[in-house]
């Protein structure tokens, strides 16, 4: 695999910032950008064992097999393609869809896909980018999905997820507010980093919460685990 050092650096940067962009699939496997996968090469420079061969995304070890593997063709349609089905024993893009992962619709602007969206009381065909909110097309272990910038989540970065703006130790720091993020009830400030009140009878002193027995956390929102209560 290439870019191992870059991945380590990325995780260090994200850990330091506290933000949690979506960079893994639901099984916690790292998502691989389609744009990073080499075209026309399934040799030693393959990226995470993937290559774009003969115009399609492939798992190199299985692509190299001399005989067509029906199981791999089914797998490829399910995991390595967006709009595809097995025809005559081969995974093939559905009608009018094209590209290495069968996500580009012939008739839409270059690189865009076709979706049905509920608009004014009816479903309407719309040409759009597969990944919303500046997400990046990637492949995981179970399907094609998107790497999402904070504060977006979901397969196509379609869902607002303000909890991604901070660490897991501060789940109440931000909250969803329509199409944007706002400070949680116990926080204020431009970056929602000022504690203004405490929960569960905690007392605010000099910007910090003094929690009563059995409670802990920035705003006394976490129950102390058994054996750790003071």
Automatic annotation (TrEMBL):
Cystine pairs annotated here are: 148-157
Domain (EGF-like) spans: 123-158
The answer to whether the entry has keyword Nucleotide-binding is no
UniProt superkingdom = Eukaryota
Q: Where is the signal peptide?
A: 1-18
Q: Which InterPro entries does the protein's record reference?
A: EGF, Teneurin
Instruction: Provide this UniProt record's keywords sorted from A to Z.
Output: Disulfide bond, EGF-like domain, Repeat, Signal
Report the protein name in the record: EGF-like domain-containing protein
- The scientific name of the source species is Caenorhabditis briggsae
């Amino acid at each position: 695999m290439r870019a191992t050092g870059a991945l380590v650096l990325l995780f260090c940067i994200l850990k330091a910032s506290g933000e949690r962009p979506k960079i893994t699939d639901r099984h916690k496997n790292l998502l691989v950008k389609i744009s990073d996968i080499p075209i026309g090469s399934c040799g030693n420079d393959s990226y995470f064992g993937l290559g774009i061969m003969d115009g399609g995304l492939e798992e190199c070890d299985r692509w190299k097999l001399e005989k067509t593997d029906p199981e791999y063709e089914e797998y490829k349609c399910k995991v390595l393609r967006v709009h595809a089905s097995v025809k005559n024993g081969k995974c093939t893009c559905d009608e009018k869809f094209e590209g290495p992962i069968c996500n580009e619709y012939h008739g839409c602007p270059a690189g865009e896909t076709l979706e049905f969206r509920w608009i004014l009381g009816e479903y309407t065909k719309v040409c759009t980018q597969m990944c919303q909110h500046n997400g990046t097309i990637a492949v995981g272990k179970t399907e094609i999905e998107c790497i999402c910038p904070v504060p977006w989540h979901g397969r196509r970065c379609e869902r607002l997820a303000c909890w991604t703006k901070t660490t897991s130790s501060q789940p109440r720091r931000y909250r969803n507010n329509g199409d944007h993020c706002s400070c949680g009830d116990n926080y204020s400030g431009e970056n929602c980093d000022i504690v203004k009140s405490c929960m569960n009878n905690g007392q605010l002193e000099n910007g910090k919460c003094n929690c009563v027995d059995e409670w802990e956390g920035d705003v006394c929102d976490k129950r102390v685990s058994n054996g750790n209560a003071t």
